[in-house]
Amino acid sequence: MKNKKLEILIISIAIIIQTLIYILCGINKSYIHMDEAYSLGLSSYDKVEIQDNEDFYNTWHNKEYYEDYLSVRKDEIGKYNQVYENQKNDVHPPLYYLLLKFAMGFSPNHFSKWCGIIINIIIYGIITIIAYKILNELLKDEKYAKEKSIILATISSITMASLTSVIYIRMYALATLNILIATYLHIKLYKSKSINIKLLVGISIFTLLGVLTHYYYIFYIAMLYLIFGVKYIKSKEYKQLAYYTTSMLIAGIISLIIFPYSIKHMFFGYRGQGVISNLTNIPKFIESITQYLTKINFFAFNNLLFIILIGIIIYKIYKKKIYSIENKEEKEIFKIIWLPTIFYFVIAAVASPWIELRYMMPICGLLFIIVIYYLYKTISNQKYRNVIIAILLIVILKSPTIFKIEPEVMYSDKKEIVQKLENEWNLPTIFMFNSQNNRFLDDILLFSKLNESYIAKDTQISEENIKNIFQNKETSKGIIVFINEGQDNDTIIETIKKATNLQKSNYIKRLNACDVYIVN
After folding, report:
1. ∠ Cα 72 119 250 (to 5°)
2. Whole-angstrom distance, CA of residue 87 vs CA of residue 269
3. At what angle do helices 328-351 and 172-191 cross, to 10 degrees?
4. Residue 19 lies inside a defined structural domain of this protein
5. Domain with 418 in it: what CATH number?
6. Distance CA 429, CA 67 (A)
7. Is 514 left (phi over 0), alpha (psi -120 to 50) or beta?
8. What is the pLDDT of residues 73-113, one digit of tens each?
9. What is residue 472's three-state secondary structure?
10. Contact 131, 116 (CB under 8 A)
11. Phi, psi (degrees; rounded to nearest 5) at 158
């Protein structure tokens, strides 16, 4: 592809295709995760938790009360001080939330999933371009290098892991972009034969942005620094080492000036303490690695990772071949990609408080590129190599329909209950709430659609208490009951039926953290 205009055209078409796929996934996204609710609330509300309101529990509220947590009011547009304050009191740096609040300003006084999704769609357009540039550096000596690079970059952006990252209203797409840009800049730095101030400034800027987006970014950039530190020391390029180290130090100092609370979050907060504890727990280390490999196999490779790895091992044994990459520069560039990625994977696997795909989202695309590229270089027979890789990529693209895989936070199974509770089942609703299992934000989207609802906190289950709650409420058409964990559902439902003189109860659905019934 020697024609620059043709190259831009093909890249543009690829981005348009992936954007259409993202929009389709966004349309089908039917619910939000608790952490997505936090993203919206931390970007728009006057405190971290809506539950901290004095009038939250044991009071009837309309849907606007909850939607206020999920949206920006018109008089709040352009005001970012509270975002910073919320992040100081939470566990994450503020950059993503500032960006999300800006986007939420386009839909004031109203919850919209599209504010967060559109940000991620734009980010992933840039991610595909940077992935293409990285792949170009790896495949530049191959025939049809640019064509192969854009194909692989695009497919890496439409795996289930990438689709999840796009429709997940969190900071992980932005973290992915920061990691890819940092990787590309370091590849260019490696190829630079002299001190390149522009590259060092770029590295400093994206180190700063990465740290202000997510703390796990530090794992990745720390390994990049180690690679280049060793490189400069071995080649006795001490001046380059000094400039490079200075660029990193400047980024670190500025990040602490902007958000000094990161020290508290990383070393003294409950998340930071948990990370330190997990890093010394060897059994948890092995278990976490195994569970995360299973997650990545399912979402980043659509259930084909282990098959690919076994194939590589068998091929190498058969060919009695250890190394797949012979070109020294190509090998070093590949190391700049795979070593920080694997380091991030290992440390994040142990450090993360739960086994959740989201903690690996920033490197899923790179893991996909690493494995496919390594398989490509392993197959020595060039006649069959392109055919094998092409068939594999087609199977990867097709396998979600075969294995019925969908993006993790699409929640298509909750589409019906959202629509019915908003429309035909929009009845007085009570949430029998056990504060020992506080995951209310997992269900706040539904409460933002219900005309009237009541959060009964740790309420003693008796007919008298239920009658007092529903006093002066029209219940003849029925009521909706939410019950979270740690309670006797059957006793609660039977007591509510007696207290309201309703005859029947039907179990509707299990949501993320509670059971829902209709009593009529």
Report:
1. 100
2. 13
3. 150
4. no
5. 3.40.1010
6. 16
7. beta
8. 998 998 999 999 999 999 899 999 999 999 999 999 999 99
9. coil
10. no
11. -125, 20
